[in-house]
Prior knowledge:
27 strands, membrane, 4 domains, seven-stranded antiparallel β-sheet, 6hp_glycosidase-like_sf, 20 helices, elongated, Beta-galactosidase, Chain A, domain 5, eight-stranded antiparallel β-sheet, alpha+beta, glycosidase, 18% strand
Amino acid sequence: MRDRRPLLAGNAANQKTALANTLKKDTRRRVDEESSQVGTIKATLSCILFFLVLLGLPMGIIYYFTPFFVVENLGCRVVDKLWGDDTVRALEAGYRRHKASPPRFPSLEYNKTMLWGTYEPGLLFAMKTRTPKPVYVGIAWYDVAGLHPVRHRLVDVLSLERRQGSNGGAISDEKADKFEAAWALHDGVHYGRLFVQDGPAKMQIEFLKSPSGDSWHVRTHGHMDGAEPVEFVVYVVNGGGALELEPTSADGSWDAKIKSEFEDAEGRREGFSLHIHDDHNPVFAATPWKVDGWASTEDEFLRDVNFRSPLLSAQPHKMGPSGVGPHNVMVFRKRYASDFRVELSMRHAMHLGADGQDEAEHRLFKAAYEALTTCQLTNVFRTREKEALSQMRKMFTPWRTGSHLNLKLYINRARRLLSGALGAWGFWHGRYLYVDPSVTALLDAQGKATKVQSDEQLRVALSDVSAFGAVTSRVGSAYGDMTMTGYHLLFLIHWNREWTKEAIASWLVGAQDASSGFIPHLATFTAASRAFAPPSARYQHLSFAAPPTILLAIPQLLRSCEGAASEKKFFELILPSLRRWRSWFHKTQSSEESAMSLEALVAAEAEKVSVNKTPPGYRWRSRDNYRIPSSGMPDYPRHACPGQHGLGAHVDLFSWVALLSSIISDIELYLGLPETVPKRLWLGWLDAVHWDARHQRYADRAGCSADSFSPYVGYANLYPLLLGILDNKERALKVIELAKAELMTQYGMMSVSYASVRAARHAGLRHDNRWMG
């Protein structure tokens, strides 16, 4: 039998060798795997390092040179798109509720919503309260070098820039050679954006009010673009209380916080707080605010303040022992040489109760809206702007029918027009000056205008009045004008019905003298508004009338009346004032031949009494030879015989008084009341006094026995038709034919016909060709 032990020994050796080989292979594989992992990590790190060098360096350079606010806005936009924000959504829901069910005028809720606004159009930008003693929170700046006027009052900025400009073209109230300030968007209540081009620098000022009006934010974003350093100013003026400033800290990161209170129109004291925040790049240190304070009335401040050279009474603000400073004026300054952003946040300490819109109860205001973060405010600004633009587009697009204008261009121009109109409204409270009635009577008897010789001829109104209205210019006449307000309302009634109702009631009720019925047509109620007004606008004549254009929107309000209780309340509010105003017109503007009162005329017509009842005729006061400036048509020649101008009668004024009385009748019928002066009477009186049968037209009565009707043709002859007084179709067609034959040109309608201009010049009456096509 063969010995197998050598074979077994060989197998054992072979097994050991195989095992050793296997162990070597496993070890080599582990080493290779570890080497591969190390190589992968190195490769990954190499790739990361490569991309950091290739992309990171340029991105770092871009980030370094990109303004901090651009990066911040992009981040806010990304967050809003990806995740949204519950606070922003809640705010937008509040704005939607306000739009669907706006507070009605008159109501306490409406007054609270409209309490704060841009109600001082003569200033570059300021938030102001509509209270007897207003609070102003405004913005201004000036160049450190002192080469340009302080950017505060537009009358200072644009008038100086006009004189320094070298171009010979016309310059608007918004723009000069090196300066422009225009409302890019303004919805009248909650949101607005003002664009200012100041040389190479650009300033964008946005404001946002909460849906209820209890809080607001203002953000100023300055793009310096290489401009010289500016001193940025935030000022606070409280006409009815002291300002309390929190103690300052040592570092420059201190944000000013102010507490104060004011008295609203109902006589309640209400507290508020204001926070001034410098939203600077956190990488760089901020310079501290410089604070000055002094005591001054709001009139003195608006009229005299020069931020470059403060008053001698101004001093660095010091805290008293109780922590309350004795100042009602505070000015905060900070110098900027590069782009900056400053935010102001205001909140009330109290606000309306939740038990109803007319609930007089006040309760503590819970901090929510005023605590918006920078990103939340940015996103709400953007959303409000989109919503306002969308609403304007919906309003303007139907009006484009028949026009060949590009839609985008048309919408942009209409947006600028509406925003500029809303930004040109203000609120004024105080007492007007008027000329002694004996002096006014002497001027009317002479038939020639003369200037007031001294302040001794002026008197002060016995009671305070207020008005909410439009200005004719933010530069040259930044005070309310009732005539301009009426024209604005024909446009704004399509945008904000409650705004329109309040403006009408403001003049008819808030500005009217309850005893005489007189309404001042210019709201120069304060010393500050008179300081920058031309001399003729600083006082009133108690017997001089102006075109009552404030009436034009009332018929449209009646036609579109929804029958709500607030609508009835509005018409009940203005009806007594309208009646007093009609009596004032009849008493002060009647021709000398019209001796009977309206009540006597109505009674005679009702009883069919055949007495000597001359139909009423009306003539404008303020005659200046052959012109009547207060009529609104100073270029229309008003013929009169020497010494007999008191016997004249003007067809345009008759039409205005007839419109006023017709509106009163419509309101009386709407409220279920009898007509005090029936509308039908005015049609007969119009034909009896002003129908020129020879020339088949309505015309002025000159008051001369030999030449009863005025020979001149112009706008005045069209007023019975323009104001809707006529109901005789045949005579209405005569008026239209007169306009086509005498006044129409390829450029529009002339104010005075060519034949009338020639006749006036032959008679020695000068004509300036104002609206001659």
